């Protein structure tokens, strides 16, 4: 793969990654305790996500024979292990954690949903070397999902109905949705 | 050698794609946070991810058909070649075809042609029987949620060494009586003017030299040099391999051997090869294109079929014909070979050594003391002196030793011996 073909998608991923981290962390002063380590984790995940895109697919060793020093061998194995880790998923969790460490701000969270989806799709397009047109069949579902996210953000901005009753309902709905999400993933 | 094979069916292993894993993480993470923090907006984050994960009908073939072929079965170092691959039976799944190159193979980008064949360019960067690598086909379903993977090992390709350039040949003074292209000292039926002699009955009248006849008053005749073929035997020493891989002594030896063989065969000489490697193998001298193929195959691939190295002093006369020029391509690190060269010289063979040792032991830098470094420097100096002594002793015996750096043309090291004929006892 030529450098230009690898760098362009990696630059797009890097830009979206930076937006994800910046949006989830802002404002850094307004968060609860524990914001800093989560921010560091998010930055590390972002760095390795971009590095993996820049490195391209794994390659065979150049030398077929000859002694490889313990340092070089260990470095090679360490890089192979590092690149095998799910860094985009790590960044997703870290960004959600950063958002949760801030006080409730529903519209900010809804925008984060858009940015995170954009990030996951950008990584997918970069890894498959596909054009954005492959996402056309998914546009109606994406639009519906984002509409639901906006609705939930709007609902969260309404004054609470009563102490305990609303939050309990959310917990039940979320638990059911979690089971559904798990079930959707299982057949694959 | 790659050949156009029949279509084979390869099973596809399907799993969640990176996008699906990311969406599952996003949905579950958001829902867990919604429960823990009791904030409804997090449940909203999960909504688009869940909708995108909704399973829909998508064709996921259990197997695909793969047909492979190659543009060329043999390649030369740094020459570009192409593997062609055709994938069938993948339905509406999108394809991503990649070549994971093996060692010393540089792979280019796969491109889909109008004929439906994927072209995977590659370049072998070092001679030998090379594994090309693995062909990876990644399939994505229409929704990008499932990823199928097929991996096929490509057959090896024979990579011939890039021959070193050689234009001016070393020619012996006495050549065997075989029709060839080198002008010999003896007179014959060639085209190169040799001299004038007195006409004797039976001579061809068209060769009478009339100006000389007028001057001397008797019939004078033009004579021409005979054209003979030379027998050249190349002794390729690859028993030791030192230096950086790619420009090591073995690399230089095979490239020089390929160049020398090609140059002498182009001059219609008879060329033989003795390979002094893991074992002793040889090809008896012969002219022609087929001999060139035989020599290149022996240089490139070592099948391990041969005699023990000690047999180098007992080679049959078919392998080492009397009157042959022996070109030894060696780093002169094998004392057994050096002894064999001395013996060959004593038997009257005209021998010339092309020294391909262009490296020396490295002195480790870093965590060693100054005393150790001084000792290492001394050891290297002794090694260098020993090498000089070996070369000096060969020169004293009348075996010219000339050095090739691997970059320049072979004409440079052979220049002192190719300008005039090399005298042999014959």
Rg of Cα set of chain A: 20 Å
Series of H and E elements of chain B: EEHHEEEEEEEEEEEEHEEHEEHEHEHEH
Terminus-to-terminus distance of chain A: 30 Å
* Class from helix and strand fractions of chain B: alpha+beta
**Molecular shape of chain B:** elongated
What sort of overall outline of chain A do the alpha carbons produce when their principal axes are compared?
A: globular
- The level of helicity of chain B is 25-40%
Q: What can you tell me about this protein's structure?
A:
The complex is a heterodimer of chains A (188) and B (426). In chain A, 72% of the residues lie in helices and 0% in strands. Chain A contains 7 helices and no strands. Chain A has helices spanning 3-25, 35-55, 70-84, 87-100, 106-128, 139-157, 165-185. In chain A, helix 4 runs antiparallel to helix 5. Chain A is globular and about 65 Å long. Chain B is α+β, with helices and mostly antiparallel strands and 426 residues long. Chain B starts with 7 loop residues before the first strand and ends in an 8-residue tail after the last helix. In chain B, helix 7 links the parallel strand 20 (350-355) and strand 21. In chain B, the strands form 5 sheets. In chain B, strands 1, 3, 5, 7, 8 and 9 form a 6-stranded antiparallel beta sheet that branches. Chain B has a 6-stranded mixed beta sheet with strand order 18-17-16-19-20-21, with helices on both faces. At the A-B interface, helix 4, helix 5, helix 6 and helix 7 of A face strand 2, helix 1, helix 2, strand 6 and strand 11 of B.
């Amino acid at each position: 793969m030529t450098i230009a073909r690898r760098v362009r998608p990696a630059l797009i991923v890097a830009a979206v990654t930076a937006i994800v981290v910046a949006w989830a962390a802002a404002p850094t002063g307004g968060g609860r305790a524990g914001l800093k380590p989560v921010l560091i984790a998010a930055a590390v995940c972002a760095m390795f996500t971009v590095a993996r895109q820049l490195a391209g697919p794994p390659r065979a060793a150049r030398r077929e024979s000859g002694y490889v020093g313990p340092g070089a061998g260990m470095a090679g194995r360490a890089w192979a292990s590092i690149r095998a880790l799910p860094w985009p998923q790590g960044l997703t969790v870290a960004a959600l954690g950063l958002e949760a460490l801030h006080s409730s701000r529903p519209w900010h969270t809804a925008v984060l949903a858009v940015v995170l989806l954009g990030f996951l799709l950008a990584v997918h397009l970069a890894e498959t070397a596909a054009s954005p047109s492959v996402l056309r069949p998914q546009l109606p579902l994406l639009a519906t999902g984002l509409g639901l996210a906006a609705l939930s953000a709007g609902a969260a901005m309404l004054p609470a109905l009563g102490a305990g009753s609303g939050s309990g309902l959310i917990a039940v709905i979320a638990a059911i949705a979690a089971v559904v999400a798990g079930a959707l993933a299982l057949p694959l | 050698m790659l050949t156009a094979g029949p279509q084979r069916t390869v099973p596809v292993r399907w799993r969640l794609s990176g996008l699906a894993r990311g969406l599952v993480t996003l949905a579950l993470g958001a829902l867990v946070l919604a429960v823990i923090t009791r904030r409804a907006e997090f449940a909203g984050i999960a909504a688009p991810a869940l909708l995108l994960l909704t399973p829909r009908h998508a064709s996921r073939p259990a197997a695909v058909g793969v047909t492979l072929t190659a543009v060329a079965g043999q390649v030369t170092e740094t020459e570009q070649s192409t593997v062609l691959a055709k994938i069938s039976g993948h339905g509406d799944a999108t394809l991503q075809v990649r070549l994971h190159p093996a060692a010393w193979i540089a792979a280019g980008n796969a491109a889909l042609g109008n004929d439906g064949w994927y072209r995977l360019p590659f370049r072998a960067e070092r001679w030998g029987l090379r594994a090309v690598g693995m062909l990876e086909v990644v399939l994505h379903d229409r929704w990008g949620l499932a990823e199928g993977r097929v991996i096929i090992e490509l057959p090896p390709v024979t990579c011939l060494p890039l021959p070193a350039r050689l234009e001016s040949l070393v020619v012996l003074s006495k050549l065997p009586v075989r029709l060839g292209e080198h002008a010999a000292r003896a007179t014959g039926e060639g085209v190169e003017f040799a001299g004038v002699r007195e006409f004797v009955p039976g001579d061809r009248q068209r060769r009478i030299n009339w100006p000389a006849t007028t001057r001397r008053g008797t019939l004078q005749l033009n004579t021409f040099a005979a054209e003979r073929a030379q027998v050249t035997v190349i002794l390729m020493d690859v028993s030791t391999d030192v230096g950086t891989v790619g420009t090591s002594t073995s690399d230089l030896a095979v490239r020089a051997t390929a160049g020398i063989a090609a140059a002498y065969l182009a001059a219609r000489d008879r060329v033989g090869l003795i390979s002094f490697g893991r074992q002793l193998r040889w090809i008896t001298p012969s002219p022609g294109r087929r001999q060139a193929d035989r020599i290149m195959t022996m240089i490139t691939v070592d099948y391990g079929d041969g005699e023990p190295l000690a047999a180098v002093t007992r080679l049959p006369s078919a392998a080492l014909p009397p009157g042959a020029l022996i070109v030894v391509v060696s780093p002169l690190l094998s004392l057994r070979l050096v002894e064999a060269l001395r013996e060959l010289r004593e038997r009257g063979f005209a021998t010339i050594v092309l020294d391909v040792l262009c490296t020396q032991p490295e002195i480790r830098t870093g965590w060693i003391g100054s005393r150790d470094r001084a000792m290492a420097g001394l050891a290297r100096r002794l090694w260098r002196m020993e090498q000089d002594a070996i070369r000096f002793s060969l020169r004293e015996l009348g075996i010219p030793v000339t050095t090739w750096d691997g970059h320049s043309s072979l004409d440079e090291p052979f220049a002192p011996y190719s300008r005039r004929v090399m005298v042999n006892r014959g």
